[in-house]
Design a protein that fits this description.
Structural class: mainly beta
Order of helices and strands: EEEHEEEEEHEHEHEEEEHEEH
Strand content: 35-45%
Helix content: 10-25%
Largest sheet: 16 strands, mixed
Length: about 325
């Protein structure tokens, strides 16, 4: 590259960008930010004669008016410890964004795109591009179609409807957190039916409620925190029939492992709809009907979930309050 060349703005039309997060926690932007070869430094006298000196920012390595993305595609991959075939990749299309540099910090704003039938917007600050280091990021997903979002993922292939709305906020401010990234978010699933997922159908089998015809979970809400290679579910509730589910727990980013506790509560007042089931564990169902909190622990992986019933399990006050608030009267 000609070291005397001064670039004021870069426009990228229909770029395809690949971003990867490996299991050791390193983010990698695979296409860009490659260090360009540098020519030898110009003599001091020549620098003073540079006609661009009044127009360039102190950091001459980045275009003054930013990098603009038009109609781009971004693929984000989360690597799985179980192997490449278990990696999870999401794609954002029709991306419109601007990357600029202010006081040594790369800012990505605005950022807008289409995300599986819905929209996604983001705002981010990057301390450096190599290695890819975020200081803060906020992502807002609106009305993403779950049927498109999970296409190709075998463990949720039966889920054919529903909308996803969510917000994720990440910060890795070195002064406040010592550089350790922390993310927290809120996700809401509506207009869907989660009973077809293996994790949820396992609860029906454990309670022998598979014969109940009127069954549905059409609303699910989770509050979560992302820590290094895991997602901590601080509290969650899934409202539906014949039972609603409440709880908390943790799982890996790619679903290789999980440990999530569910507390079933009767989802409708019509106790007669589940009494006629032959072979039902009446003691467990009776406890649910009477309001006794009986924990069901989900372990294994997303593809091969395993349920166990535990008599004793610590119930967080926040989850208890949520059960009291959302359970049907």
């Amino acid at each position: 590259r000609d070291d005397a060349l001064r670039v004021m703005r870069v426009d990228l039309f229909k770029p395809e960008i690949y971003i990867r997060r490996d299991t050791d926690g390193v983010w990698n932007v695979e296409w860009a930010f490659q260090q360009a070869p540098r020519a030898e430094a110009l003599p001091e006298a020549a620098k003073k004669e540079d006609p661009w000196k009044d127009y360039l920012r102190p950091d001459e390595s980045f275009p003054r008016n930013g990098v603009h993305i038009h109609d781009g595609t971004i693929h984000v991959t989360f690597a799985s410890k179980a192997g490449k075939e278990k990696d999870v990749t999401w794609s954002i299309t029709s991306v419109s964004a601007m990357l600029s540099r202010r006081e040594g910090i790369l800012t990505l704003r605005p950022f807008r795109g289409e995300f599986y039938g819905g929209t996604i917007s983001a705002d981010a600050e990057l301390l450096r591009a190599q290695p890819f280091t975020l200081r803060q990021m906020t992502v807002d997903v609106r009305d993403a179609q779950i049927s498109q979002l999970v296409r190709g993922d075998t463990f949720v292939k039966n889920m054919k409807a529903g909308k996803l709305n969510g917000v994720l906020s990440l910060t890795a401010d070195k002064e406040k957190l010592g550089g350790r990234p922390i993310a927290a978010g809120y996700a809401e699933i509506t207009q869907g039916d989660l009973w077809d997922l293996p994790a949820f159908s396992g609860i029906l089998h454990l309670l022998t409620l598979t014969a109940v015809s009127d069954r549905r979970i059409d609303t699910g809400i989770l509050e979560f925190t992302v820590e290094e290679d895991q997602i901590r579910i601080d509290k969650m509730h899934f409202l539906g029939y014949p039972v609603s589910l409440f709880g908390d727990g943790a799982c890996s980013l790619t679903g290789d492992w999980m440990e999530i506790v569910f507390y079933p509560r009767l989802g409708k007042s019509d106790w007669n709809s589940i009494l006629p089931i032959i072979g039902a564990p009446i003691d467990l169902l009776a406890n649910i009907f009477k309001g006794v909190l009986t924990p069901l622990v989900l372990k294994g992986s997303f593809e091969k979930p395993e349920f166990t019933r535990e008599q004793l399990h610590f119930l967080k006050p926040s989850v208890k309050s949520l059960i009291e608030e959302k359970s049907p009267r």
